[in-house]
Amino acid sequence: MSRRSFHRAPEAERRHDLIEATLDCIAEGGLQGATVRQIAIKAGVTAGLIRHYFVSKEQILQEAYRVVIGRLTEKAERVAGTPDERLRSFIVINLTEPVANSRSLSLWASFISRVSVDPALAAIHREGYLGFRNALEGLLADFLASRGLDAGPARCRALAIAINGLLDGLWLEGCLAGELFEESELVSTALSSIEALIGQPIAPPAPTK
């Protein structure tokens, strides 16, 4: 097990370093591998220092799951450009590196196995899902409104639920068996399927000069 280089830093940075060490442990050995001792070894610190920042193993796991969920959504929520460009970017980001890779899948799978039995993790999962879906609903509303189409909350909600399910499935396929697909095949499949759901083409970005 490789160790991280731990250094003197402000409290927020120290907490961040410990969470990163926790994620490393989970990616390598699942939740059962993320003991306080193993996290301390990975971070290059004492177990006592971890307990100084986190009152329990459960708390550090909760914070780590927030980071996992945040990384699956934060890049997609910061897209820019025209309504078409933002919707297209949102789709592409969720099916390519670094959102779609074996490490992301390993972390997600480790936590999702506990979500149904851990109320705290379930609340974090729900918060992340709703944040992702709300961002998608906003992109869809702008996209539809730019074409003078129905962009009401009910329609955008229904489309966002369907598109989220589609992206989840393709993301899982890409993470589990990416070698079975041609380059950009999953992105192309997502775009054509979402265009069929919306009933509108998603224009590609204008060529740069």
From TrEMBL:
<dbReference type="InterPro" id="IPR009057">
    <property type="entry name" value="Homeodomain-like_sf"/>
</dbReference>
<dbReference type="InterPro" id="IPR036271">
    <property type="entry name" value="Tet_transcr_reg_TetR-rel_C_sf"/>
</dbReference>
<dbReference type="Pfam" id="PF13977">
    <property type="entry name" value="TetR_C_6"/>
</dbReference>
<feature type="domain" description="HTH tetR-type">
    <location>
        <begin position="12"/>
        <end position="72"/>
    </location>
</feature>
<keyword id="KW-0238">DNA-binding</keyword>
<dbReference type="InterPro" id="IPR050109">
    <property type="entry name" value="HTH-type_TetR-like_transc_reg"/>
</dbReference>
<keyword id="KW-0678">Repressor</keyword>
<feature type="DNA-binding region" description="H-T-H motif">
    <location>
        <begin position="35"/>
        <end position="54"/>
    </location>
</feature>
<dbReference type="GO" id="GO:0003700">
    <property type="term" value="F:DNA-binding transcription factor activity"/>
</dbReference>
<dbReference type="InterPro" id="IPR001647">
    <property type="entry name" value="HTH_TetR"/>
</dbReference>
<dbReference type="GO" id="GO:0000976">
    <property type="term" value="F:transcription cis-regulatory region binding"/>
</dbReference>
<keyword id="KW-0805">Transcription regulation</keyword>
<dbReference type="InterPro" id="IPR039538">
    <property type="entry name" value="BetI_C"/>
</dbReference>
<dbReference type="Pfam" id="PF00440">
    <property type="entry name" value="TetR_N"/>
</dbReference>
<keyword id="KW-0804">Transcription</keyword>
<protein>
    <submittedName>
        <fullName>AcrR family transcriptional regulator</fullName>
    </submittedName>
</protein>
<dbReference type="InterPro" id="IPR023772">
    <property type="entry name" value="DNA-bd_HTH_TetR-type_CS"/>
</dbReference>
